[in-house]
Amino acid sequence: MKQVIRVGTRGSMLALKQTEEVVTALQNVFPSAVIRVITVQTRGDMHHDLTPPRTQGMFVKELEEALLQGSIDIAVHSLKDLPTTSPPGLIIAAILPRKDPRDCLVSRSGQKLLKLPPGSSVGTGSPRRAVQILKKRPDIHVVPLRGNVTTRMAKMREGRVDALVLAYAGLLRLGLDGEVTEVFDPWNFVPAPSQGVIACETRCGEGWEELLAPLHHPETAQAVGIERLFLTCVGGGCQKAVGAFAEVQNGWVRLVGMLEGKVGWREGPLATRETMVQDLAQELGGKR
Predict the structure, then answer these.
(1) Contact by Cβ (8 Å): 239, 127
(2) Rounded to a whole number, what is the distance in angstroms from the first to the last CA of the chain?
């Protein structure tokens, strides 16, 4: 009998594109397996267009419940949506290679952020993006704008805003990178911790961890582990303006962190990463 693997995902276009990447990777490793994609509507999907800001776990809770109830075997997430700790009985078993960590600007006029006319409006639902936009351009307006990527793009085309700041990886996955006006340097416009990374979550102790092991990318996991540690150290959540980006090469770490507009940098040996992150978080005013 062929093995059946039930993969759970949100139903947005971007979530389905990310799930396609996971399914392809699984098929390459287990060509005889039967893979079924099951869409799960999360609270974030039901209320994505409302004005209250996003809360931690709003795009993952229902997927995790489906895992715990046994209706799916693997949940595909954007890692940046996942809290830094998993519920009892669940584990992040695979972190896939990072697509791209950067944010980007899409503008109706084709003008870059520093060239937009004074008084222009830029849409984002992210406090992290808002504080960095205003730091660079205090003379423009940040407009709270929610919804999935295609919804936000449609709102911009309707003239509700002059530009958007979005995750570049999402546009790449959707084939919309041709719409991009400007891609920001992650050392200068700090992305969300683990931005651009797909994670696979599953139940502990049932063999799914071993099945997902070939999909795991240790280099990406190492870098995003540092970024997520920074998030923990500053007490970050969806309501805080928190950014972090780390690169690890040949045992050497470079890290930039941002908290409520204040930015700091560290670099040093990988073995000192915990101390490095804690020192940076304290410098930027994170929780003690």
Answers:
(1) yes
(2) 54
Which residue segment(s) compose the domain that 265 sits in? 227-283
Instruction: Enumerate residues 6+ apart whose C-beta is below 8 A from 245.
Output: 101, 186, 187, 190, 191, 227, 255, 256
Rounded Cα–Cα distance for residues 76 and 195 (Å): 14
Residues 21 and 78 in one domain: yes
Q: Is the pTM of this model over 0.90?
A: yes
Residue 222 lies in a domain: no
Rounded-to-integer distance, Cα 204 and Cα 181, Å = 43
> What domain count does the chain have?
3
Residues noted as catalytic: 81
Residues 91 and 210 in one domain: yes
What is the gyration radius of the CA atoms in the chain, in angstroms? 19
Beta carbons of 220 and 193 less than 8 angstroms apart: no
Strand 182-183 relative to strand 103-107, pairing: antiparallel
Tell me: do 79 and 64 sit in the same domain.
yes
User: What's 204's domain CATH number?
Assistant: 3.40.190.10
* 112 falls within a domain: yes
Task: Summarize pLDDT for 155-210 with one digit per residue, the tens.
Answer: 999 999 999 999 999 999 999 999 999 999 999 999 999 999 999 999 999 999 99
* Cβ atoms of 167 and 124 closer than 8 Å: no
